[in-house]
Amino acid sequence: MKKVLISCFVFTLLVFGLFLNANQGSAAEKQRDDYTFGEVENILVEYLKANGYSFNIGSEEFTKYVIEQMDNDTDEQLAARDDYGLITAYLAEYLYRTSIVETEVEEDSLLKESEEEISAELDSISDITLGEMAKEIEEQEAADELTRESTIVAYKTGTVDVAAGRKYAKKYAHNYNPNYPEYSNDCTNFVSQILSAGGRRQVVNQSTAKLTSDNKYWYIKSLPKGGKGRSKSWSVVSNMYSHLTRTQTGYSSTSKQKIIDNAKAGDVIQFKKADADRYTHGMWVYSKSSSNLKLSGHTKDYVERSFNAIKGYKTFRIVKM
After folding, report:
1. Average model confidence (pLDDT) for the chain?
2. CB 216 within 8 A of CB 243
3. Of 226, 283, 287, 314, which is most buried by a Cβ count within 10 Å?
4. Which of 230, 168, 177 is nearest to 203 (CA)?
5. Where are the beta strands (DSSP E) in the chain?
């Protein structure tokens, strides 16, 4: 009887040990790419509540918070978390989705984006994992590369009048041009305006649709029945890059000095944060020295922002205009 009891005890310990190890293994196997956007959003919401933030996901206040965080890691407590890489990936996708929603808004005035529409857009990806999204982005970039390779063009630089671009940047960096819509994440919209002012020819879709997704187009125009028609490439970071690199060369690096060496005044520069799968910010190269670039941009409004002073990003890419 005693032997039976000992055997049962040993068996119980073995089963418990196996169960414990299985649970620990499952936890260890929960890697970055296995988290869904919904799970990461819940983590972020709990953090915001615990730290006294009262804004909702999708609100204008939240969008401003995200932009500051991506640009400067302004909330240092959030940036210090072990799971900040997860949150960064979510915030990058949030900015992309917000740009899409604002591009599709019907009204001329976009100063107040629709919180409900942004929330609905985020709900649509809540069950998608970060890994699945990274693969989707990779596949899209590969498709864009095939398109570039199959398009016979003469790659050339000097396609933008830098003096005209500088004049426009000085005039409208801090005083937004009322002839264009204004987005909460306005960086690419403003870069497009500068390029257009500098002589970059718009590639216009002749349809009267509010939105064109095909990246071979790049334009914004008034529609016969009022409002604006535009291409995604006019105001969305990744779509602009896909359009511009059909005719211009691109270059990317994690080295700021290499970017400086390869850039020139008139080029477009885009930024991606560590652990993000998307580039989320864009500016225009106002001037260059041997050791720095001065950049013009919106959302955070600058005529000549020091490239070296920008600390929030890890990877950079330029389009040589």
Report:
1. 87
2. yes
3. 283
4. 230
5. 211-212, 220-222, 228-231, 249-253, 268-272, 281-288, 293-297, 302-306, 315-320
Cα 113–270–68 angle (5° rounding)? 50
| Three-class secondary structure assignment of 172-200 | HCCCCCCCCCCCCCCHHHHHHHHHHHCCC
CB atoms within 10 A of CB 53: 16
Structural contact between residues 234 and 240, judged by C-beta atoms closer than 8 angstroms: yes
Residue pair 300/58 in contact (Cβ under 8 Å)? The answer is no
How many C-beta atoms lie closer than 10 Å to residue 140's C-beta? 12
Q: How crowded is the C-beta side of 148, counted as CA atoms within 13 Å?
A: 17
Phi-psi region of 123 (alpha: psi -120 to 50; beta: other; left: phi over 0): alpha
User: Which residues are CB-contacts of 230 (< 8 A; sequence separation ≥ 6)?
Assistant: 103, 181, 210, 211, 212, 219, 220, 221
Cα separation, 152 vs 150, in Å, equals 6
**Quick one: tokens of 131?**
């890994």
What single-letter DSSP state applies at residue 211?
E
C-alpha 205/C-alpha 136 separation (Å) is 26
Task: Give Cβ neighbours of residue 203 (< 8 Å, ≥ 6 apart).
Answer: 216, 217, 218, 219, 231, 243
Residue 13 has pLDDT above 50, yes or no: no
Q: Are the C-beta atoms of 257 and 318 separated by less than 8 Å?
A: no
